Amino acid sequence: MRALVRLLARWPASKALRAACVLGLCALTLMALGVVFATPLPVVAAMSVAQGLGVVACLLFGLSIAADVASRRP
To answer: Mapping DSSP to helix (H, G, I), strand (E, B) and coil, where does residue 31 land?
Structure first.
């Protein structure tokens, strides 16, 4: 457990947050394109690729929160 806390304390939280924001915006763009262009390919891309990008963004955000908590721990 201590090794995980030490690893999270060195996690680059600001870079991970930026990456999470960019990935989230890319996923949102793909979802909006799926709604605007209601042909099968953009809808499938919105359902699969955008969901994958959103999950990765959520994981990066969660790891950044954990890293922030770990770095403030004595």
So the answer is: helix
Q: How many Cβ atoms sit within 10 Å of the Cβ of residue 5?
A: 14
Residue 1: per-residue pLDDT: 67
C-alpha 37/C-alpha 66 separation (Å) is 38
Q: Which residue has the tokens 């999950």?
A: 55
**pTM for the full predicted model:** 0.79
Contact of 8 with 70, CB cutoff 8 Å = yes
Q: Cα separation of 6 and 67, whole Å? A: 9
Q: Supply the DSSP string of 47-70, one letter for each residue.
A: HHHHHHHHHHHHHHHHHHHHHHHH
